[in-house]
Amino acid sequence: MDVAAALADARMVLTVDTGVVHACSALNKPIVAFYCAGELRIKYEPLSDRRLLIQAPPGGRVPDIDPQAAIAETLRLRWFDSHFSVEAITSE
Q: How far apart are CA 39 and CA 88, in angstroms?
């Protein structure tokens, strides 16, 4: 399945800073995007109406983001679909 087809059916996308961020912007999909520390995200953040940007701590990379804190932040979104479960977010 190609990325565009997968995104077309997605209700929300969680991704690192890749081309998927830009595809979500083009399709105006709700997105949670993870970024390394620094100012790069300011230049290349998603343009979707419903977006959450989670950035690594200073000097950090995406793996340095606390998963539980990211889940908690996502669950606080006003546009978060209440039909999602925490298990769906955390499943591998």
A: 31
